[in-house]
């Protein structure tokens, strides 16, 4: 059980909740802050004070005053009208993460909602009720309005949800669980849909996969080094200390550990003086990606614990301030940076695959690893496939955050496109896994040709696992099936609980 407080939620805890299906509970102290914030909203209504989103319209309609008898209808109309998402739905896991992150943000006590709204969000998470949320339609400022409106619909018993793998009307799901949906009151609809939780949820889950994939890329590169009789001197600690980047030095250390005990690797001058950049510069390139990951982790964990709706309530309602915390620019930049950093892992991986299959570069391996060069093509077209995906990533890596289109009659005249950036980041991460699966397949086959018994002990363990579900290349076959198996295995490994993840949950 993980206690949500409105602050301190980590990516490791989010993984446990969303992927590990761990349940959540609400911090009583945080709920008390929420009650105080709600009392402030009620007082504003009773006093007849004008406050944006409580008794006014929204966006360009912010100057339209709403009579107190219509404040509930105002929130219902808001949620229904804004639930205009397009395209295929986000995965259930992204929808679950959105609910967790919205709940955590509301627990900060600046949003003016009732505790019952928190309880229903908690119920969604704990009971496995996931809103069906189309993944297109957010500009990434004014919050993820359309996606979060679909989440809010589920809370009020409208729209669709998934429960136990079945899609059904939200009202039926709540009825099955014996729980009444929420009836929104003043400010609550706005509090639910103003925020960055779609881009942050999508981005956080993409990041968690990316981080594990960066680790996996290192042992896959290690197999390639073994297959190409690579030179280990390039990983000497003195080289990396001389430059000073800790991430680069850490990659070099892990590469030394992966290759320790190998009878295939070489030293300077034994076979050649130096390797190509895709081998020699693994610490520098992969290390730079780890720098990107460190930046993205920091920004995501700030955003996961941020109050991102509008207006925000402070000082027991004395200050109700309209600001712009819903603007997704920090997440947009982080996601665009993640796209670039992960694309480079695929770029350098594809170049290593080329060296494995190209007889002019492969240190004596059969052309294209073919068992009968000429009669059988071997892994020739696998390199084509990897190159195609690498090129696709270059298009997806174009920064979404450099674009902006005005909305709401130019009241909302600059937006982040952060949700597009997060969606594209998730696609790139999946593509990188496929490119690495191609390299792993080719390196596995090449190491088998040299003799797997000559591998370092840790890489021999990886080779043995692959050998359990990937046959040796003795005859041309449908290689897409092999790549799909490796890709699934890499994903399954990435989704396992991280023994080094934080465990402090406050419960």
UniProtKB/TrEMBL annotation:
Q: 5-imidazolinone (Ala-Gly) crosslink: positions?
A: 141-143
Cell compartments where the protein resides:
Cytoplasm
Q: What is its EC number?
A: 4.3.1.3
Enzyme superclass (EC): lyase
UniProt-listed CDD domains: PAL-HAL
Known pathway: Amino-acid degradation; L-histidine degradation into L-glutamate; N-formimidoyl-L-glutamate from L-histidine: step 1/3
For this UniProt record, the keywords arranged alphabetically read as follows: Cytoplasm, Histidine metabolism, Lyase
Catalytic reactions of this protein: L-histidine = trans-urocanate + NH4(+)
- Quick check: keyword Nuclease in the entry? no
Predominant location: cytoplasm
Cross-referenced Pfam families, in alphabetical order?
Answer: Lyase_aromatic
**InterPro entries, per this entry?**
Aromatic_Lyase (IPR001106), Fumarase/histidase_N (IPR024083), HutH (IPR005921), L-Aspartase-like (IPR008948), Phe/His_NH3-lyase_AS (IPR022313)
UniProt-recorded Gene Ontology molecular function terms: histidine ammonia-lyase activity
Instruction: State the superkingdom.
Output: Bacteria
What post-translational events are described? Contains an active site 4-methylidene-imidazol-5-one (MIO), which is formed autocatalytically by cyclization and dehydration of residues Ala-Ser-Gly.
PROSITE patterns registered for this protein in UniProt: PAL_HISTIDASE
- Modification 2,3-didehydroalanine (Ser) occurs at: 142
Q: Describe the family membership recorded for this protein in Swiss-Prot or TrEMBL.
A: Belongs to the PAL/histidase family.
Q: What is this protein called?
A: Histidine ammonia-lyase
Naturally occurring in which organism (per UniProt): Bhargavaea beijingensis
Please name the gene that encodes this protein: hutH
